[in-house]
Every structure is written in C-alpha cells, then in structure tokens.
UniProtKB/TrEMBL annotation:
UniProt entry tagged with the keyword Coiled coil: yes
Name of this chain's protein: FAD-binding oxidoreductase
Keyword flag Secreted: no
SUPFAM superfamilies in alphabetical order: FAD/NAD(P)-binding domain (SSF51905)
Pfam families listed in its UniProt record: DAO
Cellular component GO terms, alphabetical: cytoplasm
GO molecular function, one term: oxidoreductase activity
Species name: Qipengyuania soli
Keyword list, A-Z: Coiled coil, Oxidoreductase
Matches recorded under InterPro entries: FAD-dep_OxRdtase, FAD/NAD-bd_sf
Domain FAD dependent oxidoreductase: 5-339
PANTHER family, per database record: FAD-DEPENDENT OXIDOREDUCTASE DOMAIN-CONTAINING PROTEIN 1 (PTHR13847:SF287), SARCOSINE DEHYDROGENASE-RELATED (PTHR13847)
Length: 372
C-alpha cells in the first residue's frame, strides 16, 4: 500500500480542481471509477457561469471564481435573462443580484432583447422584459479538467482511472483506500464523488450528508436554415422555463431546467423531459424543433440547504466533504478549490474568499452536525 498525503475520490471538476491545488502541498492521488475524468456531471453541463443563483454564497463564490476563468477554458459571452408573464419580480431580483457583482448589467426592453435573439416571442406566452450581462463566461469543462490534470501531473500527483474505490477504512490514524488499480493510505481523504458522496461516506462508516441527485436534460438541434446563432447570448428564463445557448454557428442547446430526483447513476434523458424541453422553447420562441441533433442528461447533486460543502466531517478525523455543487459546480470550482486547499492543509483562509464575504463556516459540513 502506497502512502500519500491526500486521496481524492472522484475526478469531476470538484475533485480535479482541488487535487491540482493540493498537489502544491504534498503527494496526491485521485481515484476515479470511470476511464476518464468528467464522465458524469462535469462532462454533461451547460458550462455557463452566471449570477442567476438563489444562494448568496453561490453568487459570491462565482464572483471569486471569475478572475480564474481564462482562455482556452473560458471566454466572454453575453448572458440574457428573460422574464415570461408573471416573472416580473424574479427579473427584478436577478437584476439586483447581478448589480451586486457585475458592472456590465443592463435592463433591456422586449424590442432590445429581440435584436439579440430575434426568435423570442412577444405577446401571449412570450417575453415581457430582460436583463443583459455582456460579460458572462462560457466555460469549457473539458479544457478546465485538462488544465487541472496537467497541473496535478506537473506537481507529481497521480490520476488513477478505472479505479473505483471499493473499500475505505480508517486504521492507525490513516484512511486506507482500495481500488482495482492500487491501494493507498493518507491522513486526509477528500470525498468529491458527486452524486455518490453518500455511498462513499457509508463505505467509510461515516454518516451521510443527505445528498439529492436531481436529473437534468439537455437537447441540441439545428437553428433555422441559414441563421448564424453563434453570437446569440446564453438566454435563460428567470423563473421556470428553459435556457438556450449557441453550439457553434448553426446549432442550439436547450434545457427545460428539469429537476427529477434519482439514485446516483449514469443519467439518461427521459422522453417526457425531452418533449418538455422542445415544448417550452417552442412556446416562447418562433423556433421549431423538428429533429434532435443530440440529447443527454446529467445529475445536479444538492445537500439539503442547496449550498456547497467543503470541510472536515465533525467527528470523522481526516474525512473531508467536497459536495453539493448542484447546478454551479463549474462556475464555483476555482473558489471552492481555494477553500479546500486552505482547510485541508490548515493554511490561512484565502483573501479571494474573504474579499467576497465567504468564510470557512459558510461551507463547513458542521452546519449539518445535528443530523450527522
Ligand atoms: C445539464 C446540466 C447543466 C449544468 N449546467 C451548469 C452550468 O452551466 N454551470 C455550472 O457551473 N454547473 C452546471 N452544472 C452543474 C455541474 O455540472 C456540477 O455541479 C459539477 O459537474 C459537479 O462536479 P463534481 O465533480 O462534484 O461531480 P462529477 O462530475 O459527477 O464527479 C464525481 C466523480 O466521482 C466519481 N466517483 C463516484 N463514486 C466513485 C467511487 N466509489 N470511486 C471512484 N470514483 C467515484 C464519478 O465517476 C465522477 O467522475 C450542470 C449540470 C447538469 C447536469
């Protein structure tokens, strides 16, 4: 059994971004059950960073992460938030949330919004107002993961793929991990297993945190013949509805923002959610979706208060939770990795997080101590 300083379970964006940081402090191994990083949630996301998020801590973590998003893992792309009938208050809320963190936000009339996305419908079922942020960030999950893999490897860390953790136990003050690709021991194990974090905890004899994986569906389809949609903003309703975003010149991605509770699994799109995606887009736009180019589903995993978790379990020494990234795991990952680095190595709390008002307690699993 090889001894290392940190074992990370899970090579999604959470595990890989944290591992890349920890590799500057000691030896790291990342154990991933699939043959490559990012096979589950991280590789199935819409990959856009924005502030239309309910929890203030999530918006603050997003703000702290923005300076870390650089080419080729991110580029500036506008984000348009549209209100359907009855969503006026939600539009005001989104605008206020944006104004806290972004100096590039503007309120648009329906006509102005339609100059950006000409297929938006006016009148019944259509939009009644919009907010635009010209400086949104389109992310590239694979480029982000690859950047972390390179940093990890340059610092001497190891990524073990095809290495499902099948046993995790504590002996002599160390965590012992067994996989088909090897066995490691470390004082600190980072549980970054996404939808599977409670399964990993149970394996370790640690009380689960109460993770809820929720399935979300995405479809892609061709834009109307001859229309170049590549400059269209990421366009999202401020309440229930949908979002669409360009996938190159002639293709659009759409999501009905569904949230269906499920077990941790290789999520697959269900027919009714695909139909819902198409229906919601067709209701609010003049687009007609005749044929899908592709479809997929992924899991967004939340803890009960829908805020992310980074910190040691209250009474399982060395067992670190990195969980509950929900629908914001990519856009908060740089800030979350800084938090992991500080807490797991006992270093000073990062200035980047202090500056946005996020302290260690806000992310700590101690907030669930009474149920753990
Ligand atoms: C449709 C959709 C759209 C989204 N849009 C956005 C967006 O626009 N912006 C944004 O920021 N976020 C978005 N998200 C959310 C984002 O994708 C997630 O928050 C993020 O990917 C979670 O990362 P993770 O590393 O925690 O999980 P994952 O990527 O699922 O990684 C967990 C890893 O753990 C591994 N694992 C599990 N059990 C074991 C075991 N026993 N042994 C070894 N390995 C194990 C799994 O194989 C997996 O690779 C979206 C998600 C979905 C589904």
């Amino acid at each position: 059994m090889e001894q290392v300083d940190f074992i990370v379970v899970g090579a999604g964006i959470a595990g890989m971004s944290a591992a890349a940081r920890l590799a500057g402090h000691g030896s790291v191994v990342v154990c991933e059950m699939e043959d490559a990083p990012g096979v589950h949630s991280s590789g199935r996301s819409a990959a856009f960073a924005h502030f239309d998020m309910d929890a203030p801590v999530v918006r603050a973590l997003t703000a702290a992460s923005m300076p870390f998003f650089e080419e080729p893992a991110a580029h500036i792309h506008p984000a348009l938030f549209i209100a359907l009938e009855g969503q006026e208050a939600a539009l005001d809320r989104v605008e206020a949330n944006y104004r806290e963190w972004s100096a590039t936000v503007e309120r648009l009339s329906v006509a102005e919004a339609r100059t950006l996305v000409p297929v938006l419908r006016e009148g019944e079922g259509g939009i009644i107002g919009a907010v635009l942020d010209r400086a949104g960030r389109k992310l590239d999950a694979h480029a982000m993961l690859e950047g972390h893999r390179k940093s990890l490897s340059a610092a001497g860390g190891k990524l073990a793929t095809g290495a499902a953790v099948t046993s995790l136990r504590r002996e002599g003050g160390r965590w012992l991990v067994e996989t088909a690709k090897g066995a490691w021991s470390a004082r600190v194990v980072i549980n970054a297993a996404g939808a599977w974090v409670d399964e990993v905890a149970t394996m370790a004899g640690v009380t689960p945190i109460g993770i809820s994986p929720l399935r979300r569906t995405v479809i892609t389809f061709d834009a109307p013949e001859g229309l170049d949609v590549s400059a269209w903003p990421f366009t999202k309703t401020v309440g229930p509805g949908f979002y669409i975003e360009p996938e190159g010149r002639g293709r659009l991605l759409a999501c009905p923002m569904d949230e269906n509770p499920t077990e941790p699994c290789d999520a697959q799109p269900e027919e009714e959610d695909i139909a819902l995606a198409a229906w919601r887009v067709e209701e609010a736009t003049t687009l007609q979706i005749r044929r899908l180019a592709s479809k997929w589903a992924g899991l967004r995993s939340f803890v009960p208060d829908r805020r992310p978790v980074a910190g040691f379990h209250p009474d399982a020494p060395g067992f670190f939770w990195l969980a509950g990234q929900g629908g914001f795991g990519l856009q908060t990952s740089p800030a979350m990795a800084l938090a992991v680095e500080a807490v797991a190595t006992g270093s000073e709390w990062p200035e980047e997080l202090r500056a946005v008002g996020v302290d260690e307690a806000a992310l700590s699993p101690e907030r669930f101590a009474s149920s753990m």
